[in-house]
Amino acid sequence: MGITDIWTVLILRPMLNALLGLYTVLGGQFWLAIIFFTVVVRLIMTPLMLPQQRSAKKMQELQPQLKELQKKYAKDREKLAQEQMKLYKEAGASPMGGCLPMLVQFPIWIGLYQSIIQALGHQPLQLLNLSQNIYPFMESISAQIPLNRFFLGMDLSLTPQQLGGLTYALPILVAFTSWLQTKMTTVGGSGGEGQAASMNQSMTLMMPLMMGFFSLSFSTGLSFYFIISNIIGIITQGFISGWEGLMFWKGMSLSSLLSGGGAKGAAAQKTSSTSSQAAAAGSGKGSQSGSKKRKKKRRRKR
Predict the structure, then answer these.
(1) What residues contact 34, with CB distance under 8 A and at least 6 apart?
(2) Is residue 180 in a domain?
(3) Could you give the 3-state DSSP secondary structure of residue 82?
(4) What is the spatial distance between Cα 195 and Cα 212, in angstroms, rounded to a whole number?
(5) Domain for residue 84, yes or no?
(6) DSSP states of 41-54 as a string?
(7) Contacts for 82-86 with beta carbons within 8 Å, 24 or more apart?
(8) Structural domain of 220
């Protein structure tokens, strides 16, 4: 048995038959089957994702201590990184905790994509592959094949690039909900210092953009899975760590989004420049007062 056979037996065939079973129960509506399947997958993955979401809450609680470390070891980056990792270990937190749930779901995404393509197939070769992967006790569903693959006029087996029009809104919603979920599960306000903070900021932006880009080439049915799954993740994280992450517009600017705290760096440069100017002015005043005292002493001697 090769890797392809193992993948088919362990991932593809169970997911395909689960979708077909939900399709039968839900009155022949495949989009409803996708939504219910998403809820079931999220419930199964709860034991894995809850520790990561709790870790994100701990990271938020560690922010005051992290800022103190950044001030204390501002000139020693290596020592700062060591102390940060020590603090993470003692608190049981992970700076990359928000990215793991997304990475774990990759096999599910691939399996669901293949399941949707097979389940909604309507050409002879696609129907043959579908019949080979249906469990024997579910052969009664063969009478309903080909399945109803339309929702609001969209063919759930086709991609937004093939359908065009308003379906391009689906990749945008995928990217936005992925970004919002990642933003709620990753720590913010770390000051943009340290390797872990910069990696967090990059992942918070890049992963959702990648998901939105991939959704252009995936079937619209898979985009529904992404969106529903992200919404469930956002709601779950909100109950664990609060709903402040939903207010994403507060303190957000284009420069901070792209460079990760560039505005803070500019502010720091401004404060340093003003302090240097004040020091220069103070030294100038001191030299002037010193010269005046010398002149007075000379006059007294005369």
Answers:
(1) 19, 116, 156, 221, 224, 225, 228
(2) yes
(3) helix
(4) 26
(5) yes
(6) HHHHTHHHHHHHHH
(7) 84/194, 84/196, 85/196
(8) 3-262
CA distance 5 to 12: 10
Angle at 282 (CA atoms; ends 278, 283), nearest 5 degrees: 120
Find the farthest-apart pair of alpha carbons in the chain and give their distance in angstroms, rounded.
121
Place of tokens 């993955």: 45
- List all residues 6 or more positions away from 168 whose beta carbon is below 8 Å from its beta carbon: 160, 216
State phi, psi for 155 to the nearest 5 degrees: -85, 110
Q: Where are the beta strands (DSSP E) in the chain?
A: 150-151, 154-155
Predicted confidence (pLDDT) per residue in 216-241, tens digit: 988 898 898 889 988 988 888 788 77
Q: Where does the pLDDT of residue 138 fall: very low under 50, low under 70, confident under 90, or very high at 90 and above?
A: confident
Question: How many CB atoms sit inside 10 A of residue 220's CB?
Answer: 24
* pLDDT for the residue numbered 237: 77
- For the chain, report the end-to-end CA distance as a whole number of angstroms: 110
The number of domains in the chain is: 1
- Written as six digits, the tokens of 275 are 């302090």
Residue 297 is assigned to a structural domain of this protein: no
Task: Tell me whether residue 105 is in a domain.
Answer: yes
Residue type, 162: Q
pLDDT tens-digit series, residues 103-112: 667 788 788 8
Question: Which two tokens mark 280?
Answer: 């220069």
- Cβ–Cβ under 8 Å, residues 141 and 174: no
Q: What is the pTM of this model?
A: 0.67
pLDDT at 272: 45
Q: Which residue has the higher pLDDT, 106 or 254?
A: 106
Task: Please name the residues in contact with 255: beta carbons below 8 A apart, sequence gap of 6 or more.
Answer: 262, 263
Angstrom distance (rounded) from CA 203 to CA 102: 11
